[in-house]
Amino acid sequence: MRNEWLVPVSRATVFTIALLPFAGMVWDAVFDLLGPDPIEALHFRSGDWTLRFLMFTLACTPLKLLFQWKFQLRFRRMLGLFAFFYATIHLAVYLVLDLSFSWQEMVEDIPKSPYVLVGLAAYILLIPLAATSTRKMVQRLGRNWKKLHRLVYLVATLGVVHFFWLVKADLSEPMIYAGILSLLFLVRIVHNMKGQQFVPQAAPLLRLFLGPKS
After folding, report:
1. Is residue 30 part of a domain?
2. 132 within a domain of the structure (yes/no)
3. What is the mean pLDDT of residues 12-41?
């Protein structure tokens, strides 16, 4: 009970930190610090932060399974909404700044650039997740809420595929995201296969990579 006041403070802190990448993009745009191709810079930065927040969201449960940490669970829905926020910016940069709302050009882009279709599919799947993120919707949907929000696994996978097809040449960064996503999936899969015994068996191994528990 004595630490309950930390909950709203922590949420406010996480909210503020999550807005910093957006503030950085606005700052760089206003002061012309985005480089020779500002549209491309905004496109990649907003896409990067979409994937990062998807990874943050998906990491909440594995951290609980591995280390019994629970504090991050209270931020999970917020992190998911920020993934949607940066995905919306990512899409807006493409539609507004790159295509100038030319839907015909976007349709013509799809056969030449299939990553566009994959990205749009991922965004469309994010919409119902964002729309049902409130407590009222959780209560209204009941068990169906968890079933619906499992779509986030597919969204993250499509996001990584979208990144792979987008960059074409240097695949090092999308490979990092693919590795992180695979690890997060592996934790869940092994936990489901072995049950609660997975926690004491796998936690020491994962600590070798993640560092000591603080």
Report:
1. yes
2. yes
3. 95
CA 11 to chain centre: 18
**pTM, two decimal places:** 0.85
Residue 67 has pLDDT above 60, yes or no: yes
Tokens 């528990």 belong to residue: 213
Task: Give me 6's structure tokens.
Answer: 């930390």
| pLDDT at residue 9 in the model | 63
How confident is residue 199, by pLDDT bands cut at 50, 70 and 90? very low
**What are the DSSP calls for 188-206, one per residue?**
HHHHHHHGGGHHHHHHHHH
Question: Which positions ≥6 away from 71 have C-beta within 8 Å?
Answer: 10
Q: Give me the helix-helix angle, 151-167 and 38-67, nearest 10°.
A: 140
Give the tokens for residue 124: 């469309």
Q: Token pair of 111, please?
A: 């056969």
pLDDT over threshold 90, residue 105: no
> Is 1 contained in some domain?
no
CB 129 within 8 A of CB 154: no
Task: Name every residue whose Cβ is closer than 8 Å to that of residue 28 and which is 6 or more positions away in sequence.
Answer: 34, 41
Return the structure tokens found at 48.
Answer: 């990067």
Residue 118 has pLDDT above 50, yes or no: yes
Helices 76-92 and 114-131: crossing angle in degrees, nearest 10, is 140
Q: How far apart are CA 53 and CA 155, in angstroms?
A: 12
Which structural domain, as residue segments, surrounds residue 198? Answer: 6-210
Contact between 82 and 129 (Cβ < 8 Å): no
Angstrom distance (rounded) from CA 183 to CA 135: 29
**Is the model more confident about 14 or about 9?**
14
